[in-house]
Amino acid sequence: MEERKNIFFYSRKDDDSLGKTAFLKEAADRYDFYVVDKHEDANIIVSVGGDGTFLQAVRQTGFREDCLYAGVSTTGGLSMYCDFHMDDTSKMVDVLANENLEVRRYPTIEVKVDDNTSFYCLNEFSIRSGVIKTFVIDVHIDNLHFETFRGDGMIISTPTGSTAYNKSVNGAVVDPMLPCIQVSELASLNNNRFRTLGSSFILSDQRKLVLNVVQDGNDYPIMGIDNEALSIQHVESVEVGLSGKMIKTLKLKDNSFWHKVQRTFL
Ligand code: NAP
Ligand code: MN
Q1: 11 touches ligand 1 (CB under 6 Å)
Q2: Is 108-244 assigned to CATH 2.60.200.30?
Q3: CA 199 to ligand 1 centroid distance, Å
Q4: Which residues of the chain fall below pLDDT 70?
């Protein structure tokens, strides 16, 4: 494997984050890494902050598949995407210096809104009503018209995103070793006129989900890709599926996905 020596640091731009990043850059320098100014020149991309910062680091560097991503937490403890802590730089150096380091791969979602180019998500794609009235979506799985949803909206999450927004609406936590997407409802209406499945469901990587927004004056929903709003306004159809892109992170000892779930929630 090519030598992993070029590090790009990504952080928020506030004084505290910049100060912590400067400290990490010095440490990297001391251990013979090259700190680069452009992410294109890096083979390791380090996010400094929380899970939200990690999502931004991946997005701002274009969901690269040819480098390793690592999250350094600047908060109280470790989190779902931050396997290292600010106060333990030596652990990170040890891991990166190891020739036989193992990587783990996180599946991502690809979203296509009408005829726009595709967007990728590491946590989830969310679509919500932009007005007070309920929002109607015809939900298709492959070519099957599966249900007509009426309510606030839907969340389509990746396995690693299953512990985020998806979990707040009672979705299941999914092992990232399973390449799949989970569809969860936001406040569906269920009565004698309107019916949805009512529970979250999980689709294989072979499936395509198509959401057709019923054009009845509520076709300006709020759409989110991870922690960013999509600037597209009017929408008719959204196609969602697992993308071919996987995000590579470092696999550490005693730090499996289920260790992290336990550490974070139990
Ligand atoms: P935020 O509003 O600060 O995030 C909410 C919390 O979610 C933060 O504590 C964040 O951790 C955590 N988080 C992010 N990704 C996670 C993951 N994969 N598993 C477990 N926790 C996770 O905004 P943000 O930090 O930019 O994060 C964006 C994410 O927030 C979205 O992708 C969405 O999943 C989630 N969100 C949740 C709700 C909800 O639960 N009702 C509503 C909107 C958005 P850090 O503090 O370490 O950043
Ligand atoms: Mn956050």
Answers
A1: no
A2: yes
A3: 22
A4: 1-3
